[in-house]
Amino acid sequence: MKRIVTLQDISCVGRCSITVALPVISAMGVECGILPTAVLSNHTMFKHFTCKDLSDQIEPISDVWETEGISFDGIYTGYLASAEQCGQVCRFFERFSGNGNLTLVDPAMADNGRLYQAFGEDFPAAMAEVCKKADVILPNITEASLLTGMPYRTEYDEAYIRELLERLLELGCGTAALTGVSYEPDKLGVAYLDRNGKEFSYFTKKCTQSYHGTGDLYASTVLGGLMRGLELGDALALAADFVVACIEATAGSKEPRWYGVEFESQIPLLCRMLEERLGEKE
Ligand code: PXL
């Protein structure tokens, strides 16, 4: 069985980061190790939250893993607590990547044109250094504009997306996959470009309601798919279909959208979709 490690926070309530990555990646048949970078009462979109930074644990934990000879088939990073922590995560990559393992960076730091409230202006440059180490990065358009310095646009054409992708590759990553791309009012999707010039895009229907944590759900599903041997395009498409199913399953919920999507009820569907697509590959 493949083993990955994910470096992101534990938000105890609110279905994001590790509380999404662990169940989803495990359900997909991949062992999911964790390196918690911070513990929060809940994520930062709630009105109140506590946050205990665990940066001082990254190095000692890494030391023990190295002593034990523990290795990972994949390393996946999400929300990181500070610019300094981005530096520590870069060192983690230096120690644990290589030997053909896969590094996936979701530069979770911004949405809808704005940096998350916990971050200062220096954060995107620090996250760009993490992206440099990645085989695959998965920013949304806001994050891509902050990483590249390109203007953030809500109205755009294919040339804008292509330029964003090219500029993202200049950061040094192997493949840039951009989420939240929409050329038609009722369609939403993902587009990627790799260093060999390979392009791909996939669109689903656009859901009317948006929920917190769906970016984390998306990235976790992509990682699970890749670890099970799906091609990147197939993993991106599977993750998009799964997130849509989760959003639809949540439509009847009376809870506020920052509680996230009810992905738990859709895990059997995810397993079926994964096996189906693995079967198609054979
Ligand atoms: O879903 C991204 C995320 C993860 N973790 C924490 C967050 C956020 C987004 O706001 O606050 C703590």
Give a nutshell description of this structure.
With 282 residues, the chain is α/β, with parallel strands linked by helices. 41% of the residues lie in helices and 21% in strands. Strand 1 (3-11), helix 1 (17-27) and strand 2 form a beta-alpha-beta unit.
**What's the average pLDDT?**
97
Spell out which ligands are present.
Answer: 3-hydroxy-5-(hydroxymethyl)-2-methylisonicotinaldehyde
Order of helices and strands: EHEEHEHEEEHEHHEEEHHH
Number of strands: 11
Total DSSP helices: 9
Name the CATH architecture. 3-Layer(aba) Sandwich
Overview of the molecule:
Strand 9 (175-181) and strand 10 form a beta hairpin. The chain has helices at 17-27, 55-68, 83-96, 123-132, 141-148, 158-169, 214-227, 232-250, 267-281; strands at 3-11, 31-40, 51-53, 74-77, 102-105, 110-111, 114-115, 136-137, 175-181, 187-194, 199-205. It starts with a strand and ends with a helix. The chain is an alpha/beta fold and 282 residues long. The model has no long low-confidence stretch (mean pLDDT 97). The protein has 9 helices and 11 strands. 3-hydroxy-5-(hydroxymethyl)-2-methylisonicotinaldehyde binds at residues 9, 11, 16-17, 40, 43-45, 79, 108, 116, 213, 215-216.
